[in-house]
Amino acid sequence: MPGTTDAFISLTGATKSFNGITVLKNVDFDVRPGEVHALLGENGAGKSTLIKIISGLYTPDGGTIRIQGETVSFSSTRDASKRGIATVYQELLLFPELTIAENIFLGAYPKSNWGGIDWDTVRERSRALLDSLDSAELDVDTKVARLSVAQRQRVEIAKALSRDARVLIMDEPTASLAEADVQRLMDVVRALRARGVAIIYVSHRMPEIFALADRVTVLRDGALIGTKEIGEVTEASLVAMMVGRSIDQLFPKPEPIIGDVLLEVEGLRCGRLVRDMTFSVRRGEILGIAGLVGSGRTETALTLFGITPAEAGTIRIDGKTVTIRSPKEARDLGIAYVPEDRGQQGLVKAMTIRQNVSMATIDRLSRGLFIRFADEAARAVEAVKRFGIRARGGIEQPVGQLSGGNQQKVVIAKWLETAPRILILDEPTRGVDVGAKSEIHAIIGELARTGVAIVMISSELPEVLGMSDRVLVMNNGHLVTILDRAEATAESVGAAMTVAKNRKDAA
Amino acid sequence: MAFADHPTARRSERSLLHRLYSAYGQEAVILVAMVALFVIVGLINPRFLSPENLNTIFSGNAYIAVAAIGMAMIIITGHIDVSVGALIGVLATISGTLAVAGYPVWVAWLVPILVGMAVNALVGAMVAYARIPSIVVTLGMLSILRGGLISVTGGAWISGLPKEFLIAQAKPLGVPAPIYFMVILTLAAAFWMRYSAFGRSLYAIGGNPEAARASGIPIERRTVMVFVIHGAFAGLATLLFATQLQIIQSTVPPNLELTVITAAVIGGVSILGGTGTVIGSTLAAILFAAIGSALIFTNVSAYWLRAVIGVLILVTVLADMIRRRRQGRA
Which domain, by its residues, includes A475? Predict the structure, then answer.
C-alpha cells in the first residue's frame, strides 16, 4: 500500500464495537509528516471513533497501530501524547480562569532547580510558540476567558506544539469560526504542514478541504470507502462517496397524497440562527430540512413550536394568521414537536411509558380534578402495540430502561396523542438502531398519508433524500433553497449545505 | 456460608428486602421499620406503648407530618424550602396574637393559612419567573422571617390563649384532633398527587423540566401554585403547632425546617426531584418521633437522635442514587 512506509502513523484493520454494535470495521488509515489528511463522513460514520483510537482515548478491538513502522498500543491519551499525538477538540478544553501561558504548559510545567514551577521559562516559551503561530497580539498573561473562540483555538494549537506534537488531530476546527478567522486558521495549518507536522483534519466544509488537504479519506457506516489524492476527487464525487447510492432501496417511499397548503411561514425570525425563513408545507407532504449542525434547523423548529417564540414574521395555519408563544399554544393549534434530544426535551426518564405517552395530553385526559386512569392506560397499551414498543414491564416500565429506538417511539407516541395536523421531527432516528430506524420511517410515511403535514429535520442525507417530498436547505440561519424531490440529490443538497458563508453576515 | 457464593442462594437472600423495596418503595420499608421499632421497644419497656406516650408520638408530631406534605410536593417538583420552620414560627405568633386580641377563633385559625399562602406565592414567583434557585430565595426568606419575628415580638411569649382556640387539644371520639388532620390531609394530598393532572405535572417538572415544558405544561404557573399549596400546609401545620400548649413561644422552633425536609427525604422523596409520595413523608415524620421517644424509653441519650436521623438520611439518599443509576438516569 502506498504511504505505509513513509507514514508517521498508520492503522491497519482498525475495528471497534460498543455493546455488540460495530462502529468501525477494518479501517486502514495513515498520515505522513508534512501532510494534511482530511477525514470525511456523515454523523455516525465512524470519524470520531477513528480519531479517538489514534489519540489513545479508545483501545481498538482489532487491528494494529504503527508509528514510524513500529507497532504500538496506547492505553491512554497520555501514551499517545508521549508519542507526539495531539488533538484540538471541537469543544475547546482550556481553563478559562487561567492565563494563556498557564494553559499552554498545564500538566507539563518546566521545573526550576528547587522543584517549583519555572514561570519565566513558561512565559518565554509560550511567547515563542504564539509568535510561531503568527499570534503576536496575544499576551501570555491574559486570562483565556477573555479570548475569542478563534484565539482559544490558537492557544490549543500552541499547547499541542509545546508537547512536540508530530501528529495534530483537528476535529471540525472551523465549525464555530467567522470567515476571517477561518482564513487565518488555514494559514496556521499550512505553516504547520510546512514544518513537517502530520495533520488529520476533520471537516464537513468542502471549500476548506479542497484548499487544504493533500489526501482525503471517506468513511461510511464505520467502513472505509476510500482514500484518494485530492486531485482525483471532486466535490460531487466526495459527497457521493459519503452518502452511498442505495437511497432508493433504503427508503421505500409510498406514493404521497398531497393536499392543500396547511402551514405557511413568512419572514420568520428569531435570534442569529432563524433569519427570514419563508416556506410552506402541504397536507400529506414531508418537507425535509437539511443543513449542517448549527445552520439553524433546530432553532427554526423551536421557534415554530413556541419554545423560543418568533421575534418577527407571520405564521399561518389553514390560511389563518396565528401567534405561538408557548409549546402549549403550539399544541392547541395542532403542532407537535419530536425534539432532537430525547433525554433532554422528549422524555421524563423516571416516569413510566404510560405517564410519558399521556404527558402532552394529560389535561385533556382529565375529567374534573382527576385523570381517567383507564383511558390513559388503554391509550398507552394501544401506542405500545401500534409502534411495536418493546418493553418487558409493559406500560408500567420506566422509559429510562428502554433502548434508544423504543424511547424515540414513546416520544413520537406522546405527540401523536395530541392528534397533530403538523408534525415536526428533529433528527427522528438519531442514535436508533437500524431495525427501529426503518420502523420509524414507516410510521412517518404512514402519518403523511393520513394527511399530516410533516417537517423532518435530519443530518443524515440519505434519510432526507429518501423520505422528503421537498427538501429545504439551510445554511447559517438562512434558507438557501427548496428543492423538489426530483431535483434533490446528494450533490445538489450537499452543495447547498456547504455554500460559503454569506458575506453580508460575516460583516 | 458454604453456599453463599451460589448465585441463586445469593439472590434469594437479598430478595425479601429488595423485593419489598422495589415493589412498594421507601414507604413500605419505613412502615416495616416503624412496626419493628414499636414491637422491639415495647418488649423492652412496655410503657413505650402506653396511650399517653403514643399520644405524644402521633399527636405531638402531627404538625411536622402536615408540614412535610407540602415539603414533599416542593421537593418532588425539584425545589426546596429551608424557610418553613421560620414561617411556622411567624404564623404561630400571628395566630396567637389574634386569638389573645379577642378575634373570633376561626379568624385566628384562618389568617395564618392565608398569610402562609401569600408569603409562599411571593417565594414561588421569584423561583418561577425571576429564576432564582429556591434554596437562595428561601434562605433569604428564612432570615427575613426569623429576624422580623424577633425584632417585632422581642421574644415575648404569648399566654392567656382562649380555651376554644386550642384545637390541638380537642379529642373528638377520644382521638386527638391532630391525628385526624394528619391522616385526612395525608390521604387527600396523596390522592391528589397520584390521580390529578396537577400532581402528575409536578412529577414531570421535577423529573425533567425541559421535557415538561415541551409537553405543554406551564411550569412557571405550576411552580407558583405548588409553593402556594405548600404555604397552606405550613398554615395548617401552624394550626396544630400553635394550639397544643397554653402558651406560644415567639421564636422559631429550632431545626424545624431540617426535620421537615428530612421527613420528606427519608419518606422516599428524591432530593433531585421527580419521585416520592406524601404517604412516605408522613410515615417518616412519625418514625422520627418514635425513634426519639424510643431512645428515652430505652435509656439512650437523646443526643443520639440526630445522629440516627443523619445516618438514615445518608442511607436513603444513597439508595436513591443507586436506584437512579440502575434506571440509567443519574
Answer: 246-334+420-507
The nearest alpha carbon in chain A to B275 belongs to A350
Residues 6 or more apart whose Cβ sits within 8 Å of residue A201 = A36, A37, A38, A39, A170, A173, A189, A208, A209, A212, A213
CATH value of B56-326 in 3.30.500, 1.10.287, 1.25.40, 1.10.3470: 1.10.3470
Q: Which residues on B lie below 8 Å from A333 (Cβ)? A: none
A61 and A130 in one domain? yes
- CB-nearest partner of A360 from B216, B218, B274: B216
Inter-chain residue contact A348 with B327, CB threshold 8 Å: no
**Of the candidates A264, A209, A273, the residue with the CA atom closest to the CA atom of residue A477:** A273
- Under an 8 A CB cutoff, do A351 and B274 touch? yes
Q: Do B196 and A366 touch (CB under 8 A)?
A: yes
pLDDT digits (tens, 9 = 90+) for A155-173: 888 888 888 889 999 988 8
Reported pTM: 0.71
The answer to whether residues A317 and A422 touch, using CB atoms and an 8 Å cutoff, is: yes
Considering only CB atoms, B207 lies closest to which of A305, A326, A348, namely: A348
Q: Residue A430 in contact with residue A236, Cβ under 8 Å? A: no
Give residue-wise pLDDT tens across range A286-334: 999 998 877 889 999 999 999 898 899 999 999 899 999 999 999 999 9
Amino acid at A270: C
Residue A2, domain member (yes or no): no
Q: What is the DSSP letter of A42?
A: -
Contacts 24+ apart (CB under 8 A), B35-43: B37/B287, B37/B290, B37/B291, B37/B294, B38/B290, B41/B294, B41/B297, B41/B298
Q: Decide if B197 and A328 are in contact by the 8 Å CB cutoff.
A: no
Domain end residue (candidates: A245, A279, A295): A245
Tell me if A262 sits within 8 A of A282, measured CB to CB: yes
Residue A4 lies in a domain: no
Work out the number of other CB atoms within 10 angstroms of the CB of residue A234. Answer: 11
Q: How far is C-alpha B98 from the geometric centre of its chain's CA atoms?
A: 26
CB contact under 8 A, A369 and B215: no
Verify whether the Cβ–Cβ distance A347 to B211 is below 8 Å. Answer: yes
Q: Is A327 close to B216, i.e. CB distance below 8 A?
A: yes
Q: How many CA atoms lie within 13 A of A247 on its CB side?
A: 19
- Report CA A313 to chain centroid distance, whole Å: 28
Residue pairs spanning A and B at CB distance below 8 A: 87
Scanning every residue of chain B, which has its alpha carbon at the shortest distance from the alpha carbon of A343?
B211
ipTM over 0.85: no
CB contact under 8 A, A414 and B215: yes
The CATH number for A112's domain is 3.40.50.300
Domain count, chain A: 3
Which residues in chain B are contacts of A346 at CB distance < 8 A? Answer: 211, 214
* Chain A residue at shortest CA distance from B270: A350
